[in-house]
Amino acid sequence: MHIALAGNIGAGKTTLTRLLSKHFKWEAHFEDVETNPYLNSFYEDMQRWSFNLQIYFLNSRFRQVVEIRKSGKSVIQDRTIYEDAYIFAPNLHEMGLMPSRDFENYETLFELMSSFISPPDLLIYLRSSVPNLVKQIQMRGREYENSIRLDYLKSLNDRYDHWIGNYKAGKLLIIDVDDRDFINNREDLGMIIDKINAEINGLF
C-alpha cells in the first residue's frame, strides 16, 4: 500500500509522515531536503536554479515511487511527484523564473516518467492558509527558507487548491491543518488517524 502526503511548504508533511509511520508501522520515504545540492542556490537565485532543482526532485521522486512499488511494503511518502509537475514547475514558469524551453523540456520528461508509475492508493492533502504556513516555516527555522516570498506561497496554495479540486487519480483525504496541532495534541492526531483508518478500510 502506497500512502502519500501532499501540501505546501510548511504544511506539516514531514512531521505527520513521521507520526503516521510510527503509528501504522509504515515505512517512511522523505523528501530529499538535507542532501539536495540545489536547494540553497535556488532560494538565493530562483531564476538561475529553478530548472536544475525541479529536475533533481523529478528524478528523486521517480526513483522513490519505483522503489515503493518494487518493495511490496506499506509505505508513506512525504510529497508526491505530481506536486512538482502540476504545482511547483508551472508556478515557476508562470512567475518568469523558469524559461519556456526549460519548462517544456521538464513537462516532456514528466509525461514519459508518469507513464511508468501508478498514483498512490491514498493521497492525504494537508490544506493550510498562508499565515499558518509562514508561522510554521518561521518556527522550524531553516535558513534557506527565510527568503521565501508571500506571493510565492499564495501562488502555490492557489495551484494546490486547483489540483486537489480536480484530483481523480485515486482516493483522496483532505485535512485542514490550521486548527490542528497534531504534534502536541493527541486528540488532533487521533482524529487524523481515525479518518485515515476509514479511508484505508475502503481500499480493501
Known CATH architecture:
3-Layer(aba) Sandwich
> What portion of residues belong to β-strands?
5-15%
How many strand units?
A: 5
Major beta sheet, strand line-up: 2-3-1-4-5
Which H/E pattern describes the elements? EHEHHEHHEHHEH
Rg measurement, Å: 17 Å
Given the helix and strand composition, which structural class is it?
Answer: alpha/beta
Q: Spans of 5+ residues with little confidence (pLDDT < 50)?
A: none
Describe the structure.
Helix 3 (46-71) packs antiparallel against helix 4 (81-94), helix 4 packs antiparallel against helix 5 (100-114) and helix 4 packs across helix 7. The chain has eight helices and five strands. The protein has helices at residues 13-24, 39-44, 46-71, 81-94, 100-114, 130-140, 150-165, 186-201; strands at 2-7, 27-29, 75-78, 122-127, 171-176. Helices cover 57% and strands 12% of the residues. It has a five-stranded parallel beta sheet, with helices on both faces. It has one domain: Rossmann fold (3-Layer(aba) Sandwich). The model has no long low-confidence stretch (mean pLDDT 90). By secondary structure, the chain is α/β, with parallel strands linked by helices.
Strands, helices and their partners?
Layout: E1 2-7, H1 13-24, E2 27-29, H2 39-44, H3 46-71, E3 75-78, H4 81-94, H5 100-114, E4 122-127, H6 130-140, H7 150-165, E5 171-176, H8 186-201
Parallel strand pairs: 1-3, 1-4, 2-3, 4-5
Helix pairs in contact: 3-4, 3-5, 4-5, 4-7
Question: What is shown here, in short?
Answer:
The chain is of the alpha/beta class and 204 residues long. The chain has eight helices and five strands, in the order βαβααβααβααβα.
